[in-house]
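Hi R.,

Here's the chain you asked about this morning:
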Amino acid sequence: LTDLQNIGFMGTNMVSGSAVGIVLATNNETYFGSMAKSLSGDRAKNSFERGVDSVSSLLIRLMLVMVPVVLLINGFTKGDWGDALLFSITIAVGLTPEMLPVIMTSTLAKGAVLMSKHQVIVKTLGAIQTFGEMDVLCTDKTGTLTEDKIILEKYMNAVGEDDNRTLRHAFLNSYFQTGYKNFMDRAVIARTEREETEDPRLVDLSETYTKVDEIPFDFSRRRLSVLVRDRAGSTRMITKGAVEEMLAICTYAEQGSDDVPLTDDLRRQILSVADKLNDEGMRVIALARKNDPAPVGAFGVKDEGDMIFMGYLAFLDPPKDTAMTAIAALKDHGVVTKVLTGDNEKTTRCICRQVGLPVDHILLGSDLENMDDETLQKEAERTTVFAKLSPDQKARVVTALQAAGHTVGFMGDGINDAPALKLADIGISVDSAVDIAKESADIILLEKSLMVLEQGIIEGRKTYANMIKYIKMTASSNFGNMFSVLASSVLLPFLPMMSLQLIILNLVYEISCIAIPWDNVDEDYLKVPRNWDASTIGSFMIWLGPTSSVFDWITYLVLYFVICPYFVSDGLTYHQIATTAMITSGPMAGLSVRDAYEAMFQAGWFVESMWTQTLVIHMIRTPKIPFLQSHASATLTTLTCAGIAVLTALPFTPIARDLGFVALPGPYFYFLAVVVILYMLLATSVKKAYIRHYGSLL
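And the predicted structure, written out as tokens:
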């Protein structure tokens, strides 16, 4: 922003030569000053941030509904409001995906680290996910589709002949202008230095002439003027800019040693030469002069008139070798590439044709001026190439595409790209870009290769896939557990699981999920952009959550009516047991029969919950058949198996009694095996039905 404000100040102050320039810059009445003001505000939330907000809101609403219901049901049915309150708070903890911040941060950080290996700096972690969501990439032409190694190919007079006089005047303009020296300025200076050995008139021009004043470039005039004085005291204004804009301020043209009126025929001849150069893929700017313009202090934009057309400068910037391959790769991944450039349509058409972009329909900045937002939105959908755009018009196209529902990335490296970089869902710049472009971007490429964008998109989609896996599997599992808890609150005379047990179960499950950021993602999932949609989480919970509840209820029935009576109370159910009955021998000695009954029931549901809750990770991570058609990463498989093993063994450890557990009998595990197999079959069937109904799983 400081760069822009300085340029804005410099532009006005150097034109006027007075303190007025400071006032104009302070009031943001310069072009660059107003641009700085537009870039100084907070950036709007991107799609990733909006998605996280929607998920958080959904989970909070669920918690606000479920917790009071659990509290009231347990309070009225059990009569112990203290335990009911503690259990309802535990339910709130259970509903909360505690590892969500860790999973999201780890997943994004992993993507950033992988991108760094491809010479990419990720400034904003959330941009990794937005990268994968992007379905439209808007890019500037120069330096992105082209090599950004601009050379001055030709310097010609008004009739299209090579002329060192044109080069000499171009050097004075490029050398003495004090704004940002772009690649064309550098190319002019470099070519002049190379030609000095063959033309003595090009030697020591910077010492032969003295700069007097200048009118900086702006995007409305599209030209730049410099006022110089030679040793004899004569002053000369030298102006360069876009061909059409230069012809608009010229009334004469050089022909040999004469200045002749700029007739309509001569204008057509000049435009014909420029068009031919454009068709060859060259960028063309024109040069004009004016002798003895207004003196310093009175010199200004008004002097840019009645000038003498001198000739052309033709620059060559060939397309990148990788541009066509990269654009095709992006298309294969569902990303449409659109070109937004300030260059003229002929040069742009030539370059775009070479890199495989359709150029049948091109919109110009002048076309946009006559369009309302609704019309532009429709045109932006069907247009691939936009030419002769101002910075504001680039930003307007980005906004129109966003309004049409697209996630838009913008890639640029110049000052004129900064507003679009700021507005885009993901701004992409390069290390050699101007500071304001890099400050406005989310991602910076250390190498100007479009091929790295494909890798970024893949990493972004992997990031989203692994985050949404965790959110959906945890939300559906917790939602199912709440159904199970509600049923137990109504039907059971005791809590199905103590608060401490529920917290341990939740903790070990969450630890098992730590490996999700490193999980594999199915190749076919990476082919299309993926958008955050909290509504799919809600529908997923409703479909998959009750699936586990079905087997929880079956487990309740078997534990309550079969296993606990058979192995604890000699066939008696809980209500039939005398409150004073004690166990005097065996591993449960010292416990009352009712306490042992509760402990075995809670241990049984605890182990069953861990098995089903953890296996659902493998069920939900892929729409394919788990273990057979799609495999989880070795790290995730190891952690989930370890979690199951630890909690299955917990009722048999010395601390089991302290946790409220007793050892489970052998026949219980036969029942558990049947439950797990049936659960996986039912979950797979429901998953397939969900995919048929909604089109995708994640």
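DSSP finds 25 helices and 16 strands in the chain.

Let me know if you need anything else.
M.
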